[in-house]
TrEMBL record:
Residues 272-316 form the DUF559 domain. Residues 165-193 have a biased composition (Low complexity). It holds the Pfam family DUF559. Residues 165-200 are annotated as: Disordered. This is DUF559 domain-containing protein.
Length: 366
């Protein structure tokens, strides 16, 4: 199949709401690996693919807002820079562990994530981080804790084991403020006889990765869920639970195949809620186009939740995209949470994600 046909196929797949989401990601993965193999055959040598290409090849979801058909070919200062039609060559002078998938060598996804922080903002870097931590076992690459460990290991390797030391943490290696500029301040304390070479700088945008680590959460299902969670937090609400599993009583068996996210037993049904304040039985979910296709089973699901004492609030595309709708939805959530908790919730206009990370570092999720 030609490269043009392959890229055209992707656009049709993305637009087709009848194809299950995990299947779309797998189709895109197979397509990407085929295109990489074809390019490598033309080049006559092994290539290393990074950035979005590495994520697609590893079967990791990518937000449409930054998606691209260009294949990202990575070179290092020690290798020649490959330029081919339809590719985006990039140079990387930092540690670059790779992995081989079906004969295609890609940068490991956690490093591809760090690479993308050079050009993408905190919102997209957070969404990509969540994509590495999916609930679906077939789409899950790592956990939040292991991602933090990978970033710490990257810092140590960049700075050198003698400088960073075995006990180096992300915060100590990059400065307590999380910025690269302050990370080298302790070099000034070295005497002339013990002075060592200045620490090597971390990649551009690395602070964005550190801030994203404060925002990512394990077991996400979609980018809409990520955006919804961040919106609530940016407006002053506490961070909700992500995809908690709950059990509710039921009068009979429920077909889990049509329900999309729960299964049943004789007396109880188990659900995964997009977001929830479990202590107060408040569920918050994104009602996307997939809900239109399983409306009947969703109604049954909503009724079971309601009978179990749960309150469910659904968010639409407009609730996430239009500023006026955003505030209307957030105020609705806050009002219901106040009623259920008996505690005042102070809602404000969304702060920037950077401001949110400052708040989280000072006060935590509460």
């Amino acid at each position: 199949m030609s490269e043009n046909k392959l890229t055209g196929l992707s656009r049709k797949i993305i637009a087709d709401t009848s194809i299950p989401f995990p299947q779309k990601v797998r189709i895109r993965q197979a397509e990407t690996l085929e295109r990489c193999s074809a390019l490598q055959a033309r080049a006559g040598c092994e290539l290393v693919f990074g950035g979005l290409t590495a994520l697609h090849a590893a079967g990791i979801d990518v937000p449409q807002g930054i998606d691209s058909d260009e294949l990202v070919v990575v070179s290092t200062p020690a290798t020649s820079r490959h330029r081919y039609h339809g590719t985006a060559p990039t140079c990387w002078s930092f540690p670059m562990p790779t992995t081989l998938i079906d004969g295609v060598r890609i940068v490991r996804p956690e490093i591809a994530w760090i690479m993308l922080a050079r050009t993408e903002g905190l919102g997209y870097v957070t969404m990509l981080g969540d994509a590495l931590l999916r609930r679906n076992r077939d789409m899950k690459y790592t956990t939040a804790e292991r991602l933090r460990q990978s970033v710490s290991a990257f810092v140590q390797e960049v700075r050198g084991s003698q400088r960073a030391g075995a006990g180096t943490t992300i915060a100590s290696a990059t400065g307590s403020s999380g910025t690269n500029a302050d990370a080298d301040a302790d070099d000034a304390n070295n005497t002339a006889t013990t002075r060592k070479k200045p620490r090597r700088k971390l990649p551009r945008g690395f602070d964005t990765c550190l801030r994203a680590l404060d925002l990512v959460r394990d077991n996400t299902d979609s980018f809409a869920e990520t955006r919804l969670r961040l919106l609530l937090m940016q407006c002053g609400l506490p961070c909700p639970q992500v995809n908690p599993r709950i059990e509710v009583p039921t009068g009979g068996a429920v077909d889990d195949a049509s329900a999309g996210g729960y299964y049943s037993g004789r007396s109880t049904s188990c659900f995964y809620l997009d977001l929830a304040y479990g202590e107060h039985k408040l569920a918050i979910e994104y009602d996307g186009k997939q809900h239109e296709q399983r409306w009947e089973s969703d109604i049954r699901r909503f009724n079971l939740l309601n009978n179990a004492g749960w309150t469910r609030l659904g968010a639409t595309h407009d609730d996430l995209s239009l500023p006026a709708k955003q505030m209307e939805f957030v105020h609705g959530v806050a009002q219901r949470l106040e009623q259920l908790s008996g505690r005042k919730i102070d809602v404000h206009k969304p702060v920037s994600l950077r401001q949110l990370t400052i708040h989280l570092r000072r006060w935590g999720d509460a």
